[in-house]
Amino acid sequence: xxxxxxxxIYLLERFAAHRGESAADTFDRLERAxxxxxxxxxxxxxxxxSIENAFADLDARLAASSPA
Length: 68
Prior knowledge:
Number of domains: 1
Radius of gyration: 11 Å
Strand content: under 5%
Structural class: mainly alpha
Largest sheet: none
Shape: globular
Order of helices and strands: HHHHH
Distance between the termini: 38 Å
């Protein structure tokens, strides 16, 4: 398992805790929103910034992807 994927798993688990839901629910939510690949591909930025910045970015993208 490469470091990018290990970080993605860490991000997923921490983001789920931030949202107060299970990692499985968070995974499903990101998948439905089409954000799984996006989140995994953001390794270069997410791993050097505060993890809360990643949460804020993903929260904003999830909100934008939700139907009004």
